[in-house]
Amino acid sequence: MMTVVKSRRIARELVLQGLYAEEMTRDSPCKIVEDLKRKSTFCEESSTYFERLLTTTIKQRDWTSSLIKERLENWDLSRVALIDRLVLQMMITEMVFFDDVPSKVSIAEGVEIVRKFSTDESSRFVNGILDAVFHSLEELSVPAN
Asked: What is the assigned CATH class of domain 3-139?
């Protein structure tokens, strides 16, 4: 069935699918974008947003992972559920590199997406990490995009 992508929420959910696919297959971001676009119909704005969020999240994976690690208390990143980690990476990327999206929207979207695709406890965990990143945005040393 063809998905019609008219909203950023649906685009974010497809980015999550793309991040998961990349994690499992290590296919190139270009191939993943191509595969997901074949299964979906995007309006132009959603298409651009989807591609940019997916590729930027993959490109900034190590940096966003380090931000997440710094905010984990007595917990190792390898123990964080994969979906939770991918949503965190995606939403941190959006908060830092997408000036047209308010950070509070990124946090709310991350919580809603993880609520839909992960465990019952995940929404509180993701909210806490994203909120901690939000409160340190001005002090972050942001890599070039």
From this structure: mainly alpha
- Please state, in angstroms and rounded to a whole number, the distance separating the CA atoms of residues 67 and 64: 5
Please state, in angstroms and as integers, the Cα–Cα distance from residue 77 to each residue in 32, 43, 69, following that order.
Answer: 25, 36, 6
Amino acid 90: pLDDT? 98
CB 6 within 8 A of CB 103: no
Residue 76 dihedral angles phi and psi, to the nearest 5°: -100, 140
User: Per-residue pLDDT tens for 101-117?
Assistant: 999 999 999 999 999 99
pTM of this structure? 0.93
